[in-house]
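Run log, item B.
One chain of 698 residues. Sequence copied directly from the ordering sheet:
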Amino acid sequence: MQYDYRISRRIRILLTVAVLTGSALLGGPASRLEVLRSDGLIRVQIAGEGSAALTSPPEGLWSIATEWEQGWPSDWHHAAPEQVIRAGEWTILTGRIILDSGEWLLRDSCRQKGALVECIRRFEWKGSKRLEAATLSVRFQTPGIGPRIVLPGILYHGNPSGRKSGRTPVYSGSPGDLAAFEEHRFPMPFASFETAIGNEWAGVALHSLPSPVPYGNREDQWWSMGVRSREDVTELMLLSGACAANGQRSVVKATQRGFLPYDEAYLNVEPGAVIEKRFYLQAYPVDREGQGFQAAVDQSIKLFGPFSSEGLPKFPEIISAKFRYASTRWYEQGTVAGFRKYYDRPKLVLGWCGQAAALGYALQLLSDPDQDPVSRSMVQKSLDFLSEAEFYEEGFHTWYDLEDGVWQQPSENPETLSQGQAMQNVANAIRVGRTHGFQTAKWEDFLMRASEFHAARILRSDWQPLSTNEAFFIAPLSQAWELLGVQRFREAALKAGEVYASRHLSMREPYWGGTLDASCEDKEGAWAALEGFLALYGLTGERKYLDWAGHAADVALTYLVVWDIDLPPGRLRNHDFKTRGWTAVSVQNQHIDVYGVLIAPSLYRLGELSGRSELKEVALMMFRSCGQLLDPFGSQGEQPQQTNYAQRGDYTGVEGLRGGYVEDWTVFWITAHFLNAAAQFKEQGVSVGQGYRMELLD
């Protein structure tokens, strides 16, 4: 039966028959589809609880451009629905755009999908000849403007920290500001906006099922997704290829330092062509400033369901390979011992990329000390030596030159975050080493000295950390208090936690600065806060720290690839590479990497503590997925190129970047983090296999 709503005037028609709240598949506060008619015009609105809403533009539900001028679609044509039909659970809106050369038949089919409204937009070209330079779109608007946009892996409330470098996408939200990026660039494919309406906060999101676009003028052309600020509304949008950023049209973020041209991303549509696009709309209330993206994260995980580990490497396969490769980095000469950062340079490096101390903890838990004396010797000798790291006015040196026999820093950068990570590695080693019969006195002396240095610094009244990087001290200082019993270590950890919560929970300053090769918003900064807030919850049992950890975790999760990106011919496609479970690096370095393996145990723990069972499933999948691309030696490269981005090799143009793989940058973290994470999982009761042995190769 069909229902024609054109007979009604100034009436709001609620088309949602049942609100599927609490759905096991897509739960949460439900958005609802509303069809509005006023002054003869039918409009569509997606409404949530409170003041949240997304509405079709006043010029019409559908918009198609038929020209391309100065790097952007032009000559736009618009249409509003002419008819509304009900077919089972579907609400179907139809219309048309008439051009001199033919007619577009248009149809939106929408239904309730748990907390989301699912839509399938259909474009059918009935012209007698090919329509060139066309651009199709999906556009919905919400009241308010400003920078409080999250485009996962790309933009976080304007990227205020990354703006200083001039190397990242930025967005001010001023009228006319525009940002649109290829869908394969999105780890979580959504665009969300948070706004204040009166005394209330509200959020809206556009989710997409990413796909290449047919009839693309460019090779490997995909839909793009983004946001545009108009006079008093923010528009979330999908376009059939057009990209823009930082005041430039027809560009993409393709290199570590900036952007490359990406012009003429239009369609050449053949007669009779049918093009469809599936997307999802969400509107919802927000409790506090800075939380507007979290509902979208929750729905993205539930929508894509990145839980399956079928076909992925298993824990024993991965861990055995990492043991094998770790043995190739071992160095021992006299009392000097440790795992080298590079395969071709004589450096031992604590923290970040080197992770020389990480295996002092991991090998204790993953190997049997009675059956694997080599691992036991490596643990004792490496930590004994690394505990001799020399201190200077910025803390302790994190680099040791094996040729010159000196502790040093390669630059003026004190690598503060590396010091925090190294302290956590040593604290973990002490905690388990005391029960495994290791001689931990030298390790404890080092942790005491490092903790005294950094606790004193943090407790000073003028302590103002530059970025989130010093959140890496929260967890080791918490452990140091438990292991060594010094009260000021606890006080410093609590102070650091409060400082970072005050700076980051509002997202006016998104988590940033957790890497050493970029000063911008990144997942490492979010993970530092997550690990720190979890440590404070364990220290105090106070619920607020668990809530803070949930916020940091959701930011970290926005960098998690929740879908398997279709890849062009190349190294990644050769291996049937699955992108789900890998993580985008930062808003500057937009390849993916295996850093998620270190985040995964924290997500698993948060899932247990907060009752979010899906986090536990995601965490286990992340570890196993990141075990892809292992070569026979157990080595992996750091930089799979899932999008139009590269920071090594030839990148004079966009073509040929996507699908590439840089395997020669094999710093030790790629091995150490797997074993470190596997040990953490084992402590949490996850079965990771047994019988691992370290065997030194001839």
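Observations after the first pass:
- Residues 307-328+561-686 form one domain.
- The mean pLDDT is 93.
Flagged for discussion on Thursday.
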